[in-house]
Design a protein that fits this description.
The complex is a heterodimer of chains A (511) and B (314). By secondary structure, chain A is an alpha+beta fold. Chain A is 31% helix and 22% strand. In chain A, strands 8-9-10-1-11-19-12 form a seven-stranded mixed beta sheet, with helices on both faces. A four-stranded antiparallel beta sheet of chain A has the order 4-5-7-6, covered by helices on one side. In chain A, a hairpin with a 3-residue loop joins β8 and β9. In chain A, α12 runs antiparallel to α13. The longest helix of chain A is centred in the first third of the chain and has 26 residues. With 314 residues, chain B is mostly helical. In chain B, 38% of the residues are buried. In chain B, α5 packs across α8, α9 crosses α10 and α11 crosses α12. Helix content of chain B is 78%, strand content 0%. Chain B has one domain: Orthogonal Bundle (MetI-like fold). Classes of the chains: A alpha+beta (511), B mainly alpha (314).
Chain lengths: 511, 314
């Protein structure tokens, strides 16, 4: 048993004891215990496209399949790990292979028994280049999948990786399929082991889930039925919640949340997440190939103002590393760089821009907050002599034509485990190295953390990484965006999820 | 009459053909494609290329177009590239839903607009006429999403009379739960009511100034009889053409109204197709709308021909 496992257990124990301590308090507040039955209605912004776990596109795709299928390991609302079809996971001595013990006595909705064969089938399918699953890039470290026995699977990796269960076995594409499924039907049909069964699925109209009476987690789910309605207009979703036509609106933008605050019968669930907004500077291009320029821009960023304007004051301030302050791997030493106009001026002067500098910042309204962040940055940088010309691009071409092509732009990323978050955008050979950042010392540290079995060692390595990034400033991360959900106040056990998942297993209604 | 009809039919087919080429041309100029949309930000260029090949987006534009139009001629509408389903299957319920809504709105808006228009025309410059004319100007000027939200705030959020959204509860349809049609239909009505009413009023006023109407009044016919037998039949002909044109407004309004009220119809399907660069689906939905438009014009022309000998003779 390694420290990682111990860490998970410790965490679990801590959460449990906290729960036990707060239970009496909750009892006084009149929070009743879970009731079975009822139908929960959710308003979703996008349409569902496909239910094939390997090819999920929209949020409702992810939410529907997330409650029909199980993964080996799920992420709780706060991103801690929750064993689902895996009951335990342990690495070998040098962390190049992970052995997963599987849950016994689980059946698919079709009645087929769940075994190791289904796990191998699922992951081999994701690794098949012909399937072209976007999840494949998170799994390429897998060299071999061995079914040791019916309830044991071993993943053999090409390099040591202490984070493998967290970064690879929890991806939303890795929902466990039945090995005997007809894969040509996966777009519209689903046979999972999850808490709910797909009842009805009409694209653009609604999807209906019903309770799985044979769910392995006894006593769950509480709800008899869950209905998803696809409602493209943000105002319509808000009005539907206010008038009681739906019970939940998810996800909720910061401005929409403002319009729901104080409305009787409505509550807002908010969770800090590692999703972040970022201003990217191409370290290979003029003028950003000069470190002093990047440091000047860092000092000229008023993060508090950006949070106020872009996030309506919600969310945590960023310290130019993708590790949110709430992450267990964060350290108190990861300080947020101060807004210091004088320092910015001086750095610009040292860089040879004594008369100030003109730059064009590309942005687009792809996700709420981008344009607002660009405007707040422009205003906060102006006193330092940084003259920002904001170029607002069309949403349709932003990711395909502007992103990765311009040297100064706004970007956003969903929250991930620090290892994944750093690897995909900052390693020298990263697929989306938007800042063109090349630093062998940094690369070595990211890889080093993967070989460290001890949690405290990992934390120290990430602190070293922070010191490099906050000094080199390839990217300015001013704010982490929280995830919000609007709820009717008779809904319990349903919370916003830091990874923007939707876990319905513990949700119940008091009606 | 038959020759007239056949000639118009051929023209319609030609029009639709030109429309289909125009849509295709426009969509090839639009930046981005469906492969990019499906894979999103986190796609590698290789993934996008693989998917483009799989979806046939790398074929030259004319070959894509020929493949598509060939299918249509043989009755195969093809598959949606984004939703990966047969388009025919997607259209089934959407088309019915939109049709129910449009027909409902049409039969609320047109008769009332024509009646109010005639009344306003014959009572020109009365106080009621001025009130009606001002209101119709307001209705024309307000965009649908504003009217729609106003209705939601008043009728649903404040008065709690109607559901705020027209979503389809399981086991229901717009026909079994008609209250979901009221607000979307009212919103659509707002647009075409003002337009048709004003045009009818103008036509009535014009006819009222004709010599034969003056003669009819002077020879002592009761006013009611003059209006019913001389004014209305003559004023109604240009109105029919206006009504046909207003169907175009109605269909355009569907897109906005269906989004505001979360009503699962053709308009939302069309909007989704634009957003996801789903060219085959966009083609079919646009063609359906273009066809409705041309056929309603044809119907109007035929109706005019039946009602007026002069049209038939020319």
């Amino acid at each position: 048993m390694t420290r990682i496992r111990v860490k998970t257990k410790l965490y679990f124990a801590l959460v449990m004891s906290l729960l036990v301590m707060t239970l009496p308090i909750l009892g006084c507040a009149g929070e009743p215990v879970g009731q079975s039955g009822g139908s929960l209605r959710i308003a979703a912004s996008a349409d569902s496209v496909t239910l094939d776990p390997a090819l999920l596109i929209t949020n409702p795709d992810i939410w529907l399949t997330g409650n029909i299928y199980d993964k080996l390991i799920e992420k709780n609302e706060d991103m801690s790990l929750k064993p689902e079809l895996a009951v335990s996971w342990e690495p070998n001595e040098d962390i190049t292979a992970w052995t997963i013990k599987l849950r016994q006595g689980v059946t698919f909705h079709s009645g087929k028994a769940f075994t190791a064969e289904d796990v191998a089938f699922t992951f081999n399918r994701l690794l098949d280049p012909d399937i072209a699953s976007p999840g494949r890039s998170s799994l390429t470290a897998i060299e071999n999948i061995v079914t040791v026995d019916d309830y044991t699977v071993r993943f053999e990796l090409d390099a040591p990786n202490a984070f493998f269960p967290d970064t690879s076995l929890t991806i939303y594409q890795s929902r466990i399929l039945s090995a005997s499924v007809d894969t040509s039907q996966l777009t519209t049909q689903a046979d999972g082991t999850g808490p709910f069964i797909l009842e009805d699925f009409i694209t653009g109209e609604r999807a209906v889930l019903s309770k799985n009476p044979n769910y392995w987690n006894e006593g769950r789910p509480y709800l008899d039925e869950v209905i998803f309605y696809y409602m493209p207009g943000a105002e319509s979703r808000i009005e539907a919640l206010k008038t009681g036509s739906v019970d939940a609106v998810y996800p909720l933008g910061p401005v929409e949340a403002l319009s729901l605050e104080g409305v009787p019968g409505i509550k807002i669930s908010e969770i800090a997440s590692a999703s972040y907004l970022v201003i990217v500077m191409d370290t290979a291009q003029e003028p950003f190939n000069n470190k002093k320029v990047r440091q000047a821009f860092q000092a000229a960023t008023d993060r508090e103002a950006i949070r106020t304007v872009a996030m309506q004051g919600r969310g945590a301030l960023g310290a130019d590393i993708q590790i949110a302050p709430t992450d267990p791997l964060a350290s108190p030493e990861m300080k947020v760089p101060a807004y210091d106009v004088e320092r910015a001026k001086q750095l610009l002067e040292e860089a040879g821009y004594a008369d100030g500098i003109d730059v064009t910042l590309h942005t687009s309204d792809v996700v709420p907050g981008h344009v607002e962040m660009a405007v707040a940055f422009k205003e906060s940088a102006a006193p330092a002599g940084i003259r920002v010309n904001i170029m607002r691009q069309s949403e349709e071409i932003y990711w395909s034509k502007i992103w990765l092509n311009e040297s100064f732009m706004t970007v956003n990323w969903m929250g991930r485990h620090p290892d994944g978050a750093l690897s995909i955008v900052m390693l020298s050979d990263a697929p989306w190295n938007e800042a063109n950042y090349q630093n062998p010392v940094f690369d070595a540290l990211v890889l080093k953390a993967r070989t460290q079995a001890n949690f405290e060692d990992q934390r120290q390595t990430y602190l070293e990484i922070y010191k490099i990034l906050v000094d080199e400033v390839p990217r300015i991360i001013p704010v982490f965006t929280p995830i919000l959900m609007g709820l009717s106040d008779d809904v319990f056990g349903l919370k916003a999820h830091a990874g923007q998942f939707l876990l319905l297993e513990n949700a119940w209604l008091e009606r | 009459m038959t020759r007239f009809f056949v000639r118009r039919l051929i023209l319609i087919v030609l029009t639709l053909f030109v429309v289909s080429i125009a849509i295709f041309a426009v969509t090839t100029v639009l930046p981005g494609d469906v492969a990019q949309v499906i894979l999103g930000k986190g796609a590698t260029p290789q993934d996008v290329e693989t998917l483009r090949n799989e979806l046939g987006l790398n074929r030259p534009a004319y070959s894509q177009y020929m493949g598509w139009i060939g299918g249509i001629v043989q009755g195969d509408l093809g598959d949606s590239l984004y939703l990966r389903r047969p388009i025919a299957e997607l259209l089934q319920s959407r088309l019915t839903n939109s049709l129910v809504l449009a027909v409902f709105a049409f039969f609320v808006a047109i008769p009332s607009a024509v009646l109010v228009g005639i009344w306003a025309g014959t009572h020109r410059d009365s106080r009621t006429d001025r009130v009606m004319s001002t209101m119709s100007m307001v209705a024309i000027s307000l965009p649908e999403f504003v009217t729609g939200m106003l209705l939601i705030v008043i009728l649903s959020s404040t008065l709690h009379l109607l559901p705020s959204s027209s979503m389809m509860l399981p086991g229901t349809s717009p026909l079994t739960r008609p209250q979901i049609l009221i607000m979307p239909a009212l919103t659509l009505t707002g647009v075409i009511f003002g337009y048709v009413m004003r045009m009818t009023r103008a036509n009535v006023i014009e006819v009222l100034q004709c010599n034969y109407v003056r003669t009819a009044i002077l020879k002592g016919l009761p006013m009611q009889r003059v209006i019913l037998h001389h004014v209305v039949p003559n004023a109604i002909l240009p109105t029919i053409t206006i009504v046909a044109a207003s169907i175009g407004w109605l269909l355009g309004g569907l897109i906005v109204v269906e989004v505001v009220f979360a009503y699962p119809g053709l308009g939302r399907l069309l909007l989704g197709a634009v957003e996801t660069r789903d060219v085959p689906l966009l083609q079919i939905t646009t063609l359906i709308i273009a066809a409705t438009f041309t056929f309603s014009n044809l119907a109007a022309d035929l109706l005019c021909a039946v009602l007026d000998r002069r049209v038939r003779l020319s």
